[in-house]
Write a structure and sequence with these properties.
The chain is mainly alpha-helical. It contains eleven helices and no strands.
Length: 189
């Protein structure tokens, strides 16, 4: 071992000790400050408070990094987007625990898709006409209102169909739904 190494390892000089102390303090502080600091809701600007109002009651229970994400997103959002945030957050609060669990599960499925598939879904949704999006939302709401057994029966029936069969099945369901009840009972006879 050379003399320099022995000096550093075995006989730290008086200059090396303060350097090591400063470096350890710097590294220690960096690791401590890596955790986001919780945001006090009342200290947010009135505009951001208004946008995030649906979260106000639960703000202290939201993890600090999620608080920062919400605040950043709210600051960068357009007025229309802010209104949408308020609507969606308000809707989220009305959901039961079971419904919230379903939403989280669907989000997890989406996150587990490959980046390519997620991008393709976003592109298809973005390019879809607004009226068609509304129809999709209504169909989804109708499906969600069915009992778990009814949902399971539909999934079981549809999963093995070809694209063409699926389209025909959906058209038939729509026709039955749109048909007045007395017409439907007559067509069954």
């Amino acid at each position: 071992m050379n003399i320099l190494m022995r000096t550093i390892i075995f006989k730290p000089s008086m200059k090396l000790i303060p350097t090591l102390l400063v470096l350890s303090a710097v590294f220690f502080n960096c690791s401590v400050t890596a955790q986001p600091i919780p945001i006090v809701f009342e200290e947010l600007s009135p505009e951001i408070q208004d946008t995030l109002a649906p979260f106000a009651d639960d703000w202290r229970t939201i993890k600090p990094h999620h608080q920062h994400e919400l605040v950043t997103f709210s600051k960068e959002a357009s007025p229309d987007t802010r209104e949408r945030i308020k609507r969606h957050a308000g809707h989220w609060k009305t959901l039961s625990k079971k419904e919230r669990k379903k939403v989280r599960k669907a989000l997890k499925r989406y996150e587990n898709l490959s980046a390519h598939k997620r991008k393709e879904l976003r592109r298809r949704w973005k390019n879809m006409p607004v009226e068609k999006r509304r129809k999709v939302d209504k169909v989804f709401e109708k499906y969600e209102s069915l009992s778990p057994n009814e949902q399971k029966a539909i999934r079981k029936k549809v999963i093995n169909m070809s694209h063409k069969e699926r389209r025909g099945y959906l058209k038939e369901l729509k026709r039955q739904r749109d048909m007045p009840s007395e017409d439907f009972t007559e067509s069954e006879k």
